[in-house]
Design brief:
alpha+beta, 3 helices, 3 strands, 51% helix, rod-shaped
Length: 147
């Protein structure tokens, strides 16, 4: 028997079994379909929660960086050379992030503040452990030049 004939008989046998179906469901199908649907629903809900945590982390990082620049800005000569008090900028970020409950790191230069934030999400359906959303925000000190 050639390979082609074996394939033909396999397809023919499957077709015969399907044609003889009388609408009966096996108990395995009845048990598996709800489980698969719940798992899909759980994955969808928990993935959406992780995405929301990532969006929140980005928003917090951007706002904290801006708060740091605002707290540390002490001007300049007005010719585009605004500088930051790095200690004040760092304290501004710490004060802003203090009540958020998120983990964060801060780095400052003489003209900018960079904040990295991690927001945790506890899955509601799938026991996957804590999921983390991360975000980065950067703000720079700029002075308004004379026109």
């Amino acid at each position: 028997m050639s390979e082609r004939e074996g394939t033909r008989e396999g397809v023919h046998g499957l077709w015969e079994r399907l044609r003889g179906d009388e609408g009966e469901s096996s108990i395995a199908v009845l048990l598996l379909v709800p489980v698969i649907m719940l798992a899909g629903f759980g994955l969808t809900v928990d993935w959406a929660g992780k995405v929301r945590a990532s969006e929140e982390a980005v928003t917090l990082a951007q706002q904290a960086a801006r708060a740091g620049v605002n707290a540390g800005l002490y001007g300049g000569s007005g010719k585009g050379d605004a500088t930051l008090d790095r200690g004040q900028a760092h304290r501004g970020v710490v004060q802003f992030m203090g009540s958020t409950g998120a983990e964060y790191t801060v780095s400052t230069t003489n003209t900018s503040v960079i904040v990295n934030v991690t927001v945790d999400y506890e899955p509601k359906f799938i026991p996957a452990g804590t999921l983390h959303g991360t975000g980065r925000g950067e703000a720079s000190a700029q002075s308004v030049s004379d026109q």
